[in-house]
Specification:
With 126 residues, this protein is mainly alpha-helical. Helices cover 50% and strands 10% of the residues. Strand 1 and strand 2 form a beta hairpin. The two termini are 22 Å apart.
Length: 126
């Protein structure tokens, strides 16, 4: 797993800044969410995030290099992705973002709001 020395980070270096170096890129946490929810194949992750394929490929590579996800080779030529212990440790963060999003980022009258309110993120991934 790649880690950072706080002194090497720009600005006011702290553990939050170090964490954002790993999962702060656009789409990174949505990739983790998709794998948590059981989308382990590349195409399923792309569909679930709605991101361009090249962006998801880049995020999976960076998350794999950081030790957040692991590539699991399958045949024929079909890799799957799984969360490592480090990736599973992001579950409370995604739960907090889900709650914050419902409370502060989603319109009160959004018809899909209650559907996502029932979304549960499991520590165990299929």
């Amino acid at each position: 797993m790649s880690t950072a020395l706080l002194a090497d980070l720009p600005g006011r270096p702290c553990p939050i800044a170090a964490a954002l170096e790993v999962v702060g890129e656009r789409w990174a946490l949505l990739v983790v969410r998709e794998i948590m929810l059981g989308s382990t194949r590349f195409g399923d992750i792309v569909r679930g995030t709605g991101a361009p394929r090249d962006r998801i490929a880049a995020r999976l590579k960076s998350l794999e290099a950081a030790g957040v996800v692991a590539r699991v080779p399958r045949t024929p030529r079909r890799d799957e992705y799984a969360l490592t212990d480090s990736g599973r440790a992001l579950t409370p963060l995604l739960g907090a973002l889900l709650t914050w999003g419902i409370d502060h980022a989603v319109a009160d009258d959004d018809p899909d709001r209650t559907r996502h309110n029932r979304l549960t993120l499991s520590k165990e991934t299929p």
